[in-house]
Specification:
Layout: H1 2-32, H2 39-113, E1 117-126, E2 134-137, E3 150-152, E4 157-164, E5 169-173, E6 180-185, E7 191-199, E8 202-208, E9 219-222, E10 234-242, E11 250-256, E12 265-270
Antiparallel strand pairs: 1-2, 1-12, 2-5, 3-4, 3-12, 4-5, 6-7, 6-9, 7-8, 8-11, 9-10, 10-11
């Protein structure tokens, strides 16, 4: 017990002496600059201690800065992605408007070549029946549409109206298997009947003799013999001619000129009532 008391007094005495010595050194350095030559060397000893003491604060600062930078980058990336989506949407809309403008110009040019009175219409729907090819347009008998009226787009004959309501009508496309159009070959004047096959991209020319002068690339136009389709309107282009032995007629495949599955704006040919 006495030993511990003695050691405590010695420790207190040492601490007291260190305090006095430190005070003397501080006063001496302040008045005479006694330790100035030693300061650069003492800094080598103090620097590691400062690094260790400041390390936690620097680590915390770096972590906070890193997290803030990461949150900023994430939010900026999300904003940029949203901007990209908006710009892409606007670009697609611009492309769509540009394409529609081209189609309208083509339709305007085609309408100027039509001698008869025309009614402009827009496609607003199509039949979901896989065995029937019909579209719906936004013109009815209140606008002058009638059953049997010819329908064209900017490039060729599309079909004819088969149902006319007050404000809309149904058009049977020439590709429908029940549709027939009297046509003639522009190059030779050969007349025949063009029928639909149920395929929007393929028509068939009927009753063409093997000896007929017809070849790939020939253009077919309406002949006007049915008193429904006015004459000389383009209908299709011959894609292939096959003379198969044993068949009484040649197999002639025709591609429709009208954009049956893409046209949005169409023309209705309005002929006088006495000629319908």
């Amino acid at each position: 017990m006495s030993t511990l008391f003695f050691e405590g007094k010695v420790s207190g005495l040492r601490f007291f002496l260190l305090v006095i010595l430190s005070s003397i050194m501080i006063i001496a350095d302040a008045r005479s600059g006694f330790f100035n030559p030693l300061r650069p060397y003492l800094s080598f000893l103090v620097t590691p201690i400062q690094v260790v003491v400041n390390a936690p604060q620097q680590a915390i600062s770096w972590g906070v800065e890193h997290l803030a930078s990461r949150e900023y980058l994430v939010s900026e990336n999300q904003r940029l992605n949203q901007d990209v989506l908006v710009l892409r949407s606007r670009l697609q809309k611009l492309d769509s408007l540009r394409a529609e403008n081209v189609r309208l110009r083509e339709l305007l040019d085609a309408s100027q070549q039509v001698e008869a009175k025309i009614i402009m219409a827009e496609v607003i729907g199509f039949d979901q029946n896989a065995y029937s090819h019909k579209i719906m347009i936004d013109k009815g008998f209140s606008s002058g549409a009638y059953v049997g009226q010819s329908v064209l787009d900017a490039t060729g004959v599309m079909g004819q109206i088969v149902e006319a309501g007050a404000y809309n009508s149904r058009v049977l496309l020439i590709a429908d298997a029940s549709h027939f159009v009297p046509v003639q070959l522009s190059r030779t004047g050969l007349r025949s009947i063009l029928r639909g096959t149920g395929d929007l991209k393929r028509l068939a020319l009927m009753n063409v003799p093997h000896s007929a002068d017809i070849k790939k690339g020939d253009v077919l136009t309406t002949s006007g013999l049915d008193d429904r389709f006015p004459s000389d309107y383009p209908v299709g282009v011959v894609k292939s001619v096959a003379n198969i032995s044993g068949k009484p007629y040649a197999d002639v495949e025709v591609v429709p000129l009208a954009q049956l599955e893409r046209s949005r704006h169409v023309m209705l040919i309005d002929v006088p009532e006495s000629q319908r």
